[in-house]
Amino acid sequence: MPLSFLKKRKSPLWDRIHSDDATRLRLKYDTYYHIFEEQSGTRVVKDGKEFVMLSSNDYLGLSNHPKIKEAGKRAMEKWGSSTTGARLANGGRIFHRELEEKLADFLGKEACHVFSAGYLACASSITGFADRKDLLFADKNLHSSLWSGIKLSGARCERFAHNNPDHLREILEYEDDSVEKIFVLEGVYSMEGHIAKLPEFTKLAEEFRAFVVLDDAHGFGVLGNSGRGTADHFGMTDQVDVLCGSFSKSLAGVGGFVASTREAIDYMRSHSKQTIFSAALSPASCACAQAALEIMQEEPEHRARLQKNLERYRSILSDLELDTWESETPAIPIVLGEKEKVYYFWKALLEKGIYAIISIAPGVPPGKDLIRTAISAAHTDEDLDKIEDAMIYAKTKI
Q1: What is the DSSP-derived secondary structure letter of residue 219?
Q2: Residues carrying CATH 3.40.640.10, the chain
Q3: Could you tell me if 332 and 189 are in contact, meaning their C-beta atoms sit under 8 angstroms apart?
Q4: Are strands 357-359 and 242-246 parallel, antiparallel or unpaired?
Q5: How far is it, in rounded angstroms, from Cα 1 to Cα 266?
Q6: I need a labelling partner for 130 at 20 to 30 A (CA). Which of 19, 50, 220, 337 fits?
């Protein structure tokens, strides 16, 4: 038996880990981190039961497109699995440059840098440009990746009410004109499905000489000409200084990007630690993203199917008088307002073979506890029939 005075003293951090309520409740109600054994199109299988996936961001339904899968295979055969390092350390590859050039051209920007994760890209869109002496103005409902970038930048940040240019103006009028100002916005807010009021925000940016960063992860592929995104949707690409986004939504892959002028991208490569020290995007991920980008432009039927599915799904929710928070996009919340209602609604959907996800305060504002759903071009009429039946049943449980 070991002597007590020889035992290693445990860090007090272990007490915090053992007593954490958030983890205890998550495990008790089993709401997140589920594992599926199979996937085919919009159908997934867990513990032998099949579900229709209603929380994926595969908006254009391209994750199983044969051209994308073939592109990934060819890239692996030619280049292997990884470049095994950061691009600053052991260089990029020609496939990085090719994807960046095609993305920049598609988005109407001079240059682009691709990342191994959308989270890294969005954080870098802040850390690559903001200085400690700058002043950031951020929509209070921004994605976590942008808040990470804001915190890491060291710059002072003022929050304004969600998608509210009037509130932003009120804050701006109290600030020193000489301070460098940066607006941080999302093109489409992923939890709410709201489209940014970009014309009003860019007008304020011009008036107050602010630099505009737009995360368009959920607008890219959905809005604008051939899916060029929110800025293109409003004809305001030139008024947005930096565009960033993810490959894991409409491009159905992994990775992310930041696009701007050539000078700005070079500046970011010098100043963003997330850009400098993160491993390069893999050959297969680059190839899949490039193939998906080409499909977006060559096969408009995917966006047409998405709109058709979206119209039917909105009709289903409207007929049931479910609150969708005035969503304008395929990211559609079902706001129930109370944690208990959300849980029982979610359990009822699972019972009927529909997989969605819960989001409760503080992840959403108080009183906005919701089921987060997303429609895909890949959803079939049979899927939508099943979703409709499940929604009718779930409403009876609250």
Answers
A1: T
A2: 66-298
A3: no
A4: unpaired
A5: 62
A6: 220
Could you tell me whether strands 370-374 and 331-335 are parallel, antiparallel, or unpaired per DSSP bridges? antiparallel
State how beta strands 38-40 and 43-46 pair: antiparallel
| Residue 153 confidence (pLDDT) | 97
pLDDT at 6: 58
Q: What tokens were used for 226?
A: 């051939």
Q: Given this model, what pLDDT does residue 7 score?
A: 64
**Are 239 and 226 within 8 A, CB to CB?**
no
Distance of alpha carbon 158 from alpha carbon 24, whole angstroms: 33
Q: May I ask the CATH architecture of the domain 66-298?
A: 3-Layer(aba) Sandwich (3.40)
Superfamily (CATH H level) for 21-53+300-395: Aspartate Aminotransferase, domain 1 (3.90.1150.10)
Instruction: Decide if 155 contacts 136 (C-beta within 8 A).
Output: yes
pLDDT given at position 332: 98
Q: Which residue bears the tokens 């030139």?
A: 238
Query: Rounded to an integer, what distance in angstroms lies between the CA atom of residue 14 and that of residue 246?
Result: 35
**pLDDT mean for each 10 residues of the chain (398 residues):** 64 94 93 96 97 98 98 98 96 98 98 98 98 97 97 98 98 95 98 97 98 98 98 98 98 98 98 97 98 98 98 98 97 96 98 96 90 98 98 97
Structure tokens at 334: 């079902």
Per-residue model confidence (pLDDT) at position 117? 98
Q: Contact 349/394 with Cβ under 8 angstroms?
A: yes
CB 335 within 8 A of CB 372: no
